[in-house]
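hiii so my PI (J.) wants the whole complex modelled not just the main chain, which honestly fair. so below is everything: two entries, each one labled with what it is. i double checked the lines twice but i was tired so who knows lol
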Amino acid sequence: MTAKSSLTAIAAKPLPEDTHSCWSCGSMRAAHFCESCGKVQPPVPVDYFTFFGLSPKLNLDVVALEKDFYDLSRRLHPDLNARAGSREQEWSLEQSSLLNDAYRTLRDPIKRTEYLLHLEGVALEEQSKNATEQARVTGEIKKQIVPPDLLEEVFELNMELEELRMNQKMGEDDPALIAEIGKQKLALEAKHDALFEELQTHWKAWDSLIDPSRQPNEELAGERTQVIGNIVDVLNRRNYIRNLVRDVNAALEN
Amino acid sequence: MATDHVVGIDLGTTNSLVAFMQGDTPVVIPGEDGLNLLPSVVALDAKNQPVIGNAGRNSLIETPERAVYSIKRLMGRGMEDIQEELKFFPFRLAEDLQPGEVLRIKLGDKTFTPPEISALILRQLKRSAERFFGGPVTKAVITVPAYFNDAQRQATKDAGRIAGLEVLRLVNEPTAASLAYGLDQKQNGIVAVYDLGGGTFDISILKLHDGIFEVIATNGDTHLGGDDIDNLLITIALDDIRGDLGVDLRRNPEAVQAIRKAVIEAKIALSSQRSVKLDIELPGGKHYRREITLEQFEQLILPVIDRTVGPCKQAMKDARLQPEQIDEVVLVGGSTRIPKVHALVKDLFRREPHIDLNPDEVVALGAAVQANILAGGSEATQNMLLLDVTPLSLGIEVAGGVTDKIILRNSTIPASARQFYTTQVDGQANVAIHVLQGERELAKDCRSLARFDLKGIPPMAAGIPRVEVKFLIDANGILRVSAREQRSGKEAEIQVQPSYGLTDEQVEGMILDSFDNAEEDFRRRQVIEARNEAATILAALEKGKKSPAWGQLTTDEKKQIAKMEKALVAAKAEDHYQAIRKAIDALNQGTTRLAELMMDTAVSSALKGKNMDETDLGEGPTAPHPMAKAEFE
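here's the output for the full assembly
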């Protein structure tokens, strides 16, 4: 059922002329595969949401997505097209890699959100381990990236981590310090989880702006930019905390 | 041409097998010797002809410099990768081997690359299948360890091609095993497959869902297996001998192989008994004897089998699963017969592992299932589909020698990724790309897969070209790369230099015999076999003519036989094996009465106390005896 609904959605999009009818039997409008003869169709460059016949909404039924993924796999996978001509085998390979890439991205809530940002032309700040490492080396805290509401805690935690590293270097043990850092880590993890909930409220805001009944105009565009900004903010804070927790874990493991 | 048989092949470190789907059931095809397992041993006989399997195994002890085993350990590897193997395995590398070159192994005074040696094993299996089907076999599914990297996979595919096989798919061994298990138990749930073979270890966690076998995570070690246990035992024996007798046998390949054979037997015995006595005759006639208790053995192998724990935990972590969430654990590979391994798995996954299917055969059976799916499926497999993953992350080297991962491990394959490149100098026409496989942060710690040169970028100012490079891992787990300059739309040319692999031309040059014409090759072999059989029956007839029974035939019967004999002699001179077979059958039929008469004559002459001449009736009593009729139940 779901596979069929995705077909209609894709077919409804303006696609290059030759994908409207099956290359093999010619009679059907076709997307990934022909509904009439089942043959795999040449891939059309589309975004991952469109590939599954979905509008770019962030709240997504992962169970239905999985079912779609399985259904489409049964049509597109190279194993099931192993006896087809070489051209079809190539299409099958392309289509099923696209399917797998799309499914992998969309089923994960964070990857899905980041992918939407990518579609919207937004790049997230690079909060890589290297950047953190460099900041540590230069003794600078990445001021511009530290979320303002975390400034104080982060400052304190960094001091404690510094002390811990010093202790480790001297071969000393300070259980109280380790306990304190552990407590802070738990608090950070709680914040990390809370941010996911905050992210979901922004998802809702975004999805309401995808409603096809809304006329595309400046006002809508402005609202969207606003929501995207909020999402970027949450993801940046979340990534920051994630990296911090990773640093804490690394320090505690030493 | 007859139906196109696609066979499933397990190309193992220790043993190899070929199987196919007979109706709804996968079955192993036995070899010439009637055995299912073909030891993965290749030797050259005195005439430099390859001898494979059990026949080659004798050569390991008699002429070890002309034999090789465990070649799988060298597939897709370079000289710098195998220093560890060279300490423990009697691989004799060609003296003129250059760094970066594909390895060449010496057998006698000839040299072979690992894919060529594997191809000889594959060809043997191919022949077994052809004998079984009575027709050529040209297509196969071959299994590889799940943790095999790109180079190892490519080398396996090359081996298939050299053996004259079109490799329709490389399937991961644990996944293949799950297909064999899943065939009759079509339930849904999470299954872990623990596969400890002769030389490799894999752990795969799968989700079964209405016939879809979706691998969620895989991990392993391509250099961990029963071989490592054997090597521990060999080392102990060699040390003992050096200590007690003062002779170092390390440089004596015959002795080492004799010890190896004995410790393997001991290892196997310890899977079912509490202790075992080693007794090895050494050069010079002295004996090496020692008792090994199960306890000692288990203590000894613990460090080896403990190395499987890390990959299992990592796979569960990657799958985001706790041991309690895994519904079934399946054991695959000969080494899982060791009770201690069984116990370790039980402990790790907190449940009794399954070992319902023969762990030596289950991978080949699964390969046969996959072969059937690829050939269009049958009732048993029509709903089955395998979704496998890439075991290792794929990355490219970026500034500072850092690995930038573009396809993460455990991604469902086929999988793809796109990267964009530009130029740094005005008019620059080439861009060099270094592709890596592995999990480490630094490029130097990852496996170098290939260096690509993007060529023919149209001349533009620096930074203007936008070259899209697409990396695609196909369903075999093998990387493909394509590139395109987006501003000009020109396909950029890619020159691949696999870090350790054969070029297409090299593979082409290695293809065994005239396998490009499989039909012809098969036919030729059939002709030879039929002629041999014809010679045997003609010789038997000559003998029959000299026996008293010949005189009892009517003139007409004799005339008939003479006619058929003439027909067979004529057919034998021709090149049609069907015609020869037909003539053989006719002669067989026509001489039935002669054979019966000969039998009677033999019996009566025995009763008369006469010599039985050369007529062989075996060992049993030929006269009526007073015993009751035998009973058979």
